[in-house]
Amino acid sequence: MPTRSLGRSGLAVSRLGFGANAIGNLYVALDENDARDAVDAAWDSGVRYYDTAPLYGHGLSERRLGDRLRVRPRDDYVLSSKVGRLLRPHGRTTPHRLSVAEGGIFEGELPFRPEFDFSYDATMRSFEDSLQRLGLARIDILLIHDADEWTHGDAIGDRLREVETGALRALRRLRDEGAISAFGAGVNQATACERLMDLGEFDCFLLAGRYTLLEQDALDGLLPRCMAQGVSIILGAPFNSGILATGAIPGARYNYQPADTTILERVARIEAVCGAHDVPLAAAALQFVLAHPAVASVIPGARSAAEARRNAELVATRIPVALWDDLRAERLLRPDAPSPATVQAGASLK
């Protein structure tokens, strides 16, 4: 699997990564064997970058991922996890559905309640707790998780002050001491990345769903700024929580919720263009985001070995230039959005 440099960190990540939210029982409970097989199949497909978080399954994702990576040579892959939430035992013996903001999108999660804390001490503790859940001696990249208005609403100002005086100070220390190689943030808003960039230097951002085949507003501010400052983007949720993989079917998810009529209609139009060129919608979704020079890796999730292998096949699917031309002609793709075709054309002129 080809790799790309991650900002100024000196790390190189595989252009196709593995987002481990699905093996944390995102939406539905996953059998242990299926979770294991998904990670193993991703590895066999050449994936060498893996991302997880304490939130995913409330510790379950980190445990499952660590069990499979622990048998691999540690220097052969790059691993990221997140800080910003501590897991507290909730003491309940019966299932309890949390709100989406609290992490209530997991089924059969471990018996912990995520609690936001961006302080210095909490960041250091979160790092150590993740190492223990993973059973590994090193995490390469730490990301500040969900320090955005999407999650905190009007309280975001207070959260960002806590990030500036707490989490950022801890992450700088960990990087300076060599405990981690890079740090960044994992958020659901492009504007949140820019607000964080105003607080200090970051190596990367894991941007979930805000630069995709469906929406490209990040071209207006964030992506040019990342290029100018040498900051890399890891593109999470490249299918916008599912709809760019399933297509515009009833119940298709967008931003973790059932998609509304406007989104369904737009995706149906994109899907029709892809179908006219006999290209899977999901292949176009993955390859589109990788065309932007700020994007170092795209990290779709996988619930099974078949899905993990499919992701690798989609990244390698041949897509005719005419597909991107037709998307632009239908005003489904911004004129200034790089596509694989424009990247190849640029390379041929050098």
From TrEMBL:
Q: What top-level branch of life does the organism fall under?
A: Bacteria
Gene Ontology molecular function? oxidoreductase activity
Q: Name one Pfam family in it.
A: Aldo_ket_red
Which SUPFAM superfamilies does the annotation name? NAD(P)-linked oxidoreductase (SSF51430)
What are the GO cellular component annotations? cytosol
Residues of the NADP-dependent oxidoreductase domain: 15-320
Which InterPro entries does this chain map to?
Answer: AKR (IPR020471), NAD(P)_OxRdtase_dom_sf (IPR036812), NADP_OxRdtase_dom (IPR023210)
Protein name according to UniProt: Aldo/keto reductase
Origin species, per record, is Lichenicoccus roseus
